[in-house]
Amino acid sequence: MKARALSLTIPLIAPALLAVIWVILARQIGNQVILPGIEQVADLLGHPTEDLISMGSLISNVLVSLVRVIMGYAIAALVAIPLGIVMGYYGFIFKFFNGFLNLFRPIPPLAWVPLVMAWFGISSLATVVGLETGQMYIYLNNIKFSMLFIIFIGAFYPILTSTIHGVRNINTTLIDSARVLGASEYQIFMKVLIPASMPSIITGMRIGLGIAWMCLVSAEMLPGSLSGIGYMITHAFTLASTDIVIAGMISIGVVGASMDMVFRRIEHKKFSWRRQAR
Question: How many Å apart are CA 212 and CA 183, to the nearest integer?
Answer without folding.
Answer: 37
